Amino acid sequence: MTIKDVAAKAGVSVATVSRVMNASGTVNPETEKLVQSVIDELEYSPNGIASSLKTDRTHIIGYVVTDIRNTVFTFLMAAIQNVLWEYNYSMMLFSTNGDPDKEASILRFISMQKIDGAILNSCTNTQSIIQLNKKIPVVLTGNDISDPNFIGDFVDSDNHAASYMLTSNLLSNGHRKIGIINGPNNLVVSRERFRGYQDAMAVLGMTINIDNPLVYEGSFDVSSGYLAAKKMLSSASMRPTALLVTNNEMMKGVLKYCSEQQIKIPDDLSVVTIGNRHELDYLYISPTYMETNLEEMGERLARLILERIETKKRLPKRIFKLPAFFHDGNTVKPLTPIEANTIIS
């Protein structure tokens, strides 16, 4: 059974059958319905291997994340896949578990396969990414590469603005002893969020460096949020009045610790976070947070990788920063100047 058999039975050209199967051109709705009915009747399925050899395309995109358990990655994956499906592309998923050696192995594996392009989320192996980029188009999120040998795209939220606004909100509510629970320092997303926190604190003359006790470097997962809260909140005398927690997963860990230790939010501790509404709706509090639009980000990542695959001209490196949006919840307690001064002293 070949595509010619389908075309002959439907009374159309091979090109028309191809357009119907690939959704790659305008076909009269009645003709499309007829062709699809013949395909179903004959139980025709194209030979994907032969097709890829002929066109040098597999219509497969590699998607690499650091931890598939992180719901940010799964929400992004859903948004990416929705767009890819429209253009007859499929996704191959890889998770590095935050292991640099495993990441390098995965990138080598992708480079040896017939994969049309790759979307890499928070990958850090610069040289492996550059080598992969020499073979196929690559789009990044979570961690950018400044090396001029990388010619791809980078998409992320405006992380500096998000953390700056949240820290400013805490400051405007009288807080001065503000801690930050952040992700790994080797990621651009973490450095940008820390810089936003730094810049907001500096407005009131407070200089906060990376080694300050108010700063905790986590790993964007629940356990590191829990451990950070345990370290920063275990001593009542050293406890910050507020925490900026820079993602949903670590926020869950902080809330777990606070629940176990009967630390009341916001009476005993104010907390703000950066995340997406899908996850935050399930928390036992209604947090003040900056919302990252994962649907828009995922769609942008997908359309950029498809553009790089389909275009015949060489595109320059492009950087896209998407705005985050402020949501005022019930997790920030305003402090009077007397309260703030008493706690600091």
Automatic annotation (TrEMBL):
HTH lacI-type domain residues: 1-55
A GO MF label: transcription cis-regulatory region binding
Record key words, sorted: DNA-binding, Transcription, Transcription regulation
TM stretches of this protein: none
Pfam families: LacI, Peripla_BP_3
UniProt protein name: LacI family DNA-binding transcriptional regulator
Lineage: Bacteria, Bacillati, Bacillota, Clostridia, Lachnospirales
